[in-house]
Amino acid sequence: YMVEDLRGLINGIEAMSHELTPENALPFTEFEEKEEGEECPPLNEYVFNNMMKASQKKRYKYFIGHVTQWQQIWVLMHNEEDIACLQDNNDFVGMGVWPHKDYAAYIQKEPEFSDCMVSSIEVHDFVDTYIPYLKKEGTKIALFYNGEDFVCIDNLDRLKEDIEEELDRIE
Q1: Cβ distance 150 to 54 under 8 Å?
Q2: Cβ atoms of 88 and 96 closer than 8 Å
Q3: The pTM is what?
Q4: d(CA 141, CA 170)
Q5: Residues 97-115: pLDDT tens digits?
C-alpha cells in the first residue's frame, strides 16, 4: 500500500506540473473559452520549449501526431488569401506550416512576419485540397520553422501519406 500510495502521489505531482496555468503558459497564450473541438488547447511552456529545440526529425513526427490529433494545421497569412512562405540559406522556399497556434504565433513576432495573422487549415482540407494544389504549382512546404530552421518538404506525397496513415490509425 505504501509503495502504491507513493507512486500515485508522484504521478499526481508530475501530472500537475504539466498542467497549463497562466503562471506556466507562454506570454502570448490566450485563455478565452472556446467551444469543444474548435481549437487545440494552449501549450505549456515545457512542451513549447522542448519542441522548439527538437531535431527536425522529432519536429516532423510531432507535427504529424499533433495535426492529426487536433485536426488543424497552422499558417501565417499575409492577407486573407496569401500564406507566408519561408526561405532557408540553401534557397529552399516553402509554405510555412506549424502543428500548433502557439508556434505560429511565436514566429509571427519576428519582424518579417509582423504583418501576418495566424490562421488554421482543417487537416482534411490540407490533405485533400492544399497538398494537390501545392504539388501542381510546384510549391514545397517549410514545416515547423522554429526561428532557426525548418523541415524541408519537397515530397508532398510522402507528407500526405504520413498524415493519412495517422488519421486512419486514430479515426
Answers
A1: no
A2: no
A3: 0.76
A4: 24
A5: 999 999 999 999 999 999 9
In angstroms, rounded to a whole number, what is the distance separating the alpha carbons of residues 77 and 118? 6
Buried b (16+ CB within 10 A) or exposed e, 129-159: ebbeebeeeebbbbbbbbeeebbbbeebeeb
Q: Under a CB-based contact definition with an 8 Å cutoff, are residues 56 and 148 in contact?
A: no
- 48's grid cell: 513549447
- What sign for the dihedral angle of Cα 103, 106, 109, 111? negative
Give the position of cell 519542441. Answer: 51
CA–CA separation, 152 and 166 (whole Å): 20
The answer to whether the beta carbons of residues 85 and 64 sit under 8 Å apart is: no
Q: What share of the chain is helix, strand, coil (3-state, %, to 5)?
A: 45, 20, 35
